Amino acid sequence: MSSIDLFQNPLRRWGKGKRRPTVRVKELHERDRRRVVRHFLGLEANDRLLRFGSMLPDERIEHYVSGIDFSGDMVFGVYNRLFRLVAVGHLAFAPREPGQSEVTEKERVAEFGVSVSKSARGLGIGSKLFERAAMHCRNHDVDTLYMHCLSSNKTMMHIARKAGMEIQRDYGEADAYLKLPPANPASVLQEALDEQFATFDYAMKANQRFAVKWLDRLRALWRARKP
Ligand SMILES: CC(C)(COP(=O)(O)OP(=O)(O)OC[C@H]1O[C@@H](n2cnc3c(N)ncnc32)[C@H](O)[C@@H]1OP(=O)(O)O)[C@@H](O)C(=O)NCCC(=O)NCCS
Fold first, then answer.
1. What is the tens place of the pLDDT at every residue in 168-223?
2. How many helices and strands (H and E) does the chain possess?
3. Are 1 and 50 in contact (CB under 8 A)?
4. 227 has a pLDDT exceeding 60
């Protein structure tokens, strides 16, 4: 199978393919908003162009993030070992438009946008965020995942093709659709397990970060008290 097998056995990576670190994709919430802004502001100009379709200045990015509806949309993130948010996937739901009736009969369609910090690229994070978004759609009665990007975006085009997306190119831009099968108990369980593992991983990293900060502070105090 050439496309990403979206709902395969979670042990699938064992013994085959490239050895890549496990990627834990976690749902983000209101409290993560500032970190999302920081992640986007850290993207270089060209990456902002690829992610948003234009070179957004900082204020526009801040405005965009302040408008994200964390309760209606779905925002996913990946934290690195140092507890930095290095990737964000935004799955926005919108009512189906009249022109989209040949694509889906469902009430809603989902549009996905993703970015990975330069330091974390090539590790499978972008693909994993895409898989997770597709799984979430499938489990929430959305059968079509939509993505809009520049057709010069070779990496994203590669991910889209690998996932089996249908791609329509027009004037340097590309619209890609992925048809998703309906949910089943395995897909629901897999999403729940993925989130549980990611939450555990997040808590470990947060505690580790807290411990390092606390030790640093203690060391600084100790040094200050030395005659
Ligand atoms: C696109 C992006 C999200 C990919 O993130 P990533 O974590 O590096 O992606 P992955 O590691 O999962 O996969 C990258 C794949 O593209 C391939 N690739 C990398 N550069 C490529 C290129 N120039 N041409 C073709 N394929 C390329 C890699 O080999 C890998 O393929 P594989 O998984 O089959 O080995 C990241 O590059 C990014 O944030 N770009 C800027 C923002 C953007 O373009 N967003 C998408 C618009 S919605």
1. 888 889 989 999 999 999 999 999 999 999 999 999 999 999 999 999 999 999 98
2. 6, 7
3. no
4. yes
**Pocket lining: 50 vs ligand 1, CB cutoff 6 Å:** yes
109 vs 104 pLDDT, higher one = 109
Residue range 35-80, pLDDT digits in tens: 999 999 999 999 999 999 888 999 999 999 999 999 999 999 999 9
* C-beta 158 within 6 A of ligand 1: yes
HSE-up (13 A, CA, CB side) for residue 48: 19
Alpha carbon distance 56, 202 (integer Å) = 30
Q: What angle is formed at CA 40 by the lines to CA 50 and CA 123, rounded to 5 degrees?
A: 70
Report d(CA 131, CA 163) in Å as an integer.
8
From atom 36 of ligand 1, which residue's Cα is the shortest distance away? 116
What does the DSSP assignment read for 197-225?
Answer: HHHHHHHHHHHHHHHHHHHHHHHHHHHHH
CB of 85 closer than 8 Å to CB of 79: yes
How far apart are the CA of 184 and the centre of ligand 1, in A?
29
Nearest-CA residue for atom 26 of ligand 1: 155
